[in-house]
């Protein structure tokens, strides 16, 4: 897949991934009367306010009561509705993990939960509101699909497709404006990773907005004769084992990149697949077992090692281990 013209255009569009969620909710609401939205006093922040305005009779403001909200969503799902639960990732799945596990996932109900403001790039909100553990605590729950789309367009598609799945789904997305480098025509299918750039020397498996950073790195390292394969692993569970193993066998080295704790995140999921099937040298780019802090998003990403410079360093390190 050749995304280069769009990735490197002079004035690339910058739009929050959460906007893709909000626009998809309205789209779903117009098509399916069973779609309902629940929110924990954060309709503007989660972009569920658009649905609220157009379909007020199908919008439930639950207040700051995330555990009750998950129970309500499970009840609605058991009666044939498709509920979308909207709040920050530190609150869902963070605060209502028990209700998610027992009320939604144990019964395999079609509850769609969304974790907005995920990652350290939430910025000034600080450590208490920077969701960095949500992938770890969701991917371990049976029946639950876990998605981390890379930009506005992919978030919109992921939300629409999540509504079609018969079981529970978790979607995580960021707060800040990030590059929109895919289009409405870019392939997307839940459970299938997309190889956005082919290479033979090292594979970078990334999720969320940091996929864009991985693509920038691949272009930069081309000048050093290092050919980087970039994989957009938007579906963390079920992980696309076939694509990852094929890439590992081709390049012989893997880097994982995510705006999440390294421990237990997407990188851990990739390592589990490789350890069982085809071990290769690996390096991990993500949050290094630390809480975040208040600051500008770009400053925090740099401090905690989730920028192009850190990805390049990890690539050169893993190449020495091949």
Structure description:
The two termini are 26 Å apart. β6, α8 (152-162) and β7 (169-172) form a beta-alpha-beta unit. With 322 residues, the chain is an alpha/beta fold. The chain has 13 helices and 14 strands. Helices cover 38% and strands 20% of the residues.
What is the 3D form? globular
Beta strands, count: 14
For the CA atoms, what is the radius of gyration?
19 Å
Order of helices and strands: HEHEHHEHEHEHEHEEEEHEEHEHEHH
Low-pLDDT segments, ≥5 res: none
As a percent range, the share of strand residues is 15-25%
C-alpha end-to-end distance: 26 Å
Notable characteristics:
322 residues, globular, alpha/beta, 7-stranded mixed beta sheet, 5-stranded mixed beta sheet
Q: What's this, in brief?
A:
With 322 residues, the protein is of the alpha/beta class.
List the helices and strands and how they pair.
Layout: H1 4-7, E1 14-16, H2 17-31, E2 35-39, H3 43-46, H4 49-54, E3 59-61, H5 66-78, E4 82-88, H6 97-105, E5 112-116, H7 134-138, E6 145-147, H8 152-162, E7 169-172, E8 177-179, E9 194-197, E10 202-206, H9 210-222, E11 228-232, E12 235-237, H10 241-251, E13 254-261, H11 266-277, E14 282-287, H12 297-303, H13 308-320
Parallel strand pairs: 2-3, 2-4, 4-5, 5-7, 6-7, 10-11, 10-13, 13-14
Antiparallel strand pairs: 1-8, 6-12, 9-11
Helix pairs in contact: 2-8, 5-6, 9-13, 10-11
